[in-house]
Amino acid sequence: MVKLTSKFIEKKYVQVQSKSLSKANKKQELWKLTHLYMNGMFINEIGNFAVCKNLKVIYLQDNNISRIENLHFATHLTHLYMQHNKISKLENLDCLQNLRKLYVGYNCISVIEGLENLENLIELHAENQSLTLGETLCFEPRSAITLSKCLKKLNISNNKMTTLTDIANFSELEILEAKNNLLEDIEDLTQIISTLISLKELYMNGNPVAHKHRYKESLIANSNTLANLDGKNISDTCRRFLQVFKEKRFKESIKKITVPLTDDIANSLNLPPAFKKSVYRAIFQQPGPKLSIKVTSAMGELQPHSFPLWKTAAGINSLKNNHVTPRPFWRNKTNEKEICKLNAINNKSIMFPPI
User: pTM of the full predicted structure?
Assistant: First the structure.
């Protein structure tokens, strides 16, 4: 078990410098330190080393650290390297307000949190987290709001992510690495990419969405700033062509409906031609009061269409219990066989029993 303390740092410093120091010199030398190289030292706990107040860069990667702590004194810190450890939670980073680059890849982090005070952070590397079955990397809302205003580079590759909704509207983000995730919804992805108004480089290799039809064309057409996609440069000519093509397709999709609504309804009945004409006449060409119905077109406009009231349709000519009883319009005429039966009944004499 190795604990990072002032004494441990003194010991390593003396080994590197190959000279002995007095107590006064030790304290002065540690106070002057700006870069601390403690990577690969089998450290599993961060103790008290507040004497190193002027540290700007700390290298703690490739250790066995499970918790971030005791860094409250390092107010001048700009770079923190903690990848390849056993960290499961981002915490105790509130005092590092000058931190610009944070490396926490290859740990066990499932939630990006505790960064709401890091308003100067421009790079976050959180790739290849060891997640349990069913877990996926996500962003805590307060931290996401802060990062959306300052973060320029983000690496979230290989974290079982199915959507990038958490990083929508990251207005300062210029480089996004999201390789080897589970992203497959092309519409969701293009919508989010369109909100990243400063994005210049995007890496999506290893995602199912990268095999979708017109994947590259969709992303390029929905970004005005993207200059590199999956390692391939994008020319301005290519972007302009795809954006014009996108606008043309959009205009075609929102044209007004040219087929009259009456014809569309009559055709949808899938009836023989003679019946179609009869239905058309019965519904749309009957005189009398009409019911006005508003139909929304593809343009979002309300187009009024008038339909006859069903009580005025042909064949509606009988009452039962003061309610109109509808009949099929093709049975307006009485069947000749039924007329013969009615006449036979009327002509038949009725015998009364004797008094």
Answer: 0.69
